[in-house]
Amino acid sequence: MIRAKKLLKSKNIKHGFFNKFGGKSKSIYKSLNCGLGSFDKKENILNNLKIVIKKIKTSPKKVFLLNQIHSNKFCYIDKKFRFKKNKFKCDAIITNLRNTPVGVLTADCAPILIHDQNKNMVAAIHAGWKGAYKGIVKNVVKFMLKKGCTPNGLTAVIGPCISVKNYEVKKDFKDRFLKKDKKNQFFFKNIKHKTYFSLNKYIYSELKSLNIKNIEIIKKDTFDIKNNFFSARRSIRRNENDYGRNISIIMIN
Questions:
Q1: How far lies 148's CA from each of 118, 119, 144, in Å?
Q2: Helices 136-146 and 199-209, interaxial angle, to 10°?
Q3: Which of 14, 125, 190, 215 is deepest in the core (most CB within 10 A)?
Q4: How is the chain classified by DSSP, letter by letter?
């Protein structure tokens, strides 16, 4: 489990970015696969989620997760929220409830955890290139600001995701971003006639544009096998038929 230095300063929250180490799953899911959307045995995944809960030392028995769809949609959980068995189809959770762990699952996409120390509100965001492009980060932050949070009170941490050196993209991918804003050229690198994209820098820039100053990037490349994270792109390259998911969670004490 990785914890962000900037979030550790907040004593009234718990959080963690988990890699694939320390769970019950076998073979390509070895071992802390938390993705209920994978083809792993459900029993193993549920046991892995229990391990995650235990590691961040929380009293609740489950993490609130989403049916992630690479969108710019989020859900807000407050005291009026009615919990249902069906997962919400969106890519971020915002809450001001205590003892309610919220999390996102990733396997190269970027997990983003946000905390506002004044309003004591947290958010967990799943941002692949599609969600980032569609504005999931901006939508979440703007909602939090409407709820009384302030840019100076917000701390945002971009968790482990695929690095620029392993994120090769096609011409149409780059063209899409440049059509949106020519300044997006900054997030692309050309190396030996190939084009690469920096997802975490793109998200960092988005957060900066929203006047958030307290930002941290955890520089761990999920594609690099040495870092022990699940990676969709690495699994595809190995011709594996599926892959596990890393979990990132945050909770107000």
A1: 9, 7, 7
A2: 30
A3: 125
A4: -B--HHHHT-TTEEEEE--S-S-S--GGGTTT---TTSSS-HHHHHHHHHHHHHHTT-SSS--B--B--SSS--EEE-TT----SSPPBSSEEEE--BT--EEEEESSSEEEEEEETTTTEEEEEEE-HHHHHHTHHHHHHHHHHHTT--GGGEEEEE--B--GGG-EE-HHHHHHHHHH-GGGGGGEEEETTEEEE-HHHHHHHHHHHTT--EEEE---BSSSGGG----HHHHHHTT-S----EEEEEEE-
Question: Residue 55, Cβ neighbours under 10 Å: how many?
Answer: 15
Place of tokens 């938390």: 34
Q: For residues 59 and 34, which has the higher predicted lDDT (pLDDT)?
A: 34
Domains and CATH numbers, the chain: 5-163+198-252 (3.60.140.10)
The structure's pTM equals 0.97
63-97 residue pLDDT tens: 999 999 999 999 999 998 877 666 789 999 999 99
As a whole number of angstroms, the distance between CA 115 and CA 103 comes to 13
| Terminal C-alpha separation, the chain | 18
Tell me how far apart the alpha carbons of residues 1 and 18 are, in angstroms, rounded to a whole number: 4
What is the per-residue pLDDT for 85? Answer: 61
How deeply is 88 buried, as exposed, middle or buried, from its count of CB atoms within 10 A (0-12, 13-18, 19+)? middle
Residue-wise pLDDT tens digits, 204-246: 999 999 999 999 999 999 999 999 999 999 999 999 999 999 9
How do residues 177-189 score in pLDDT, each as one tens digit? 999 999 999 999 9
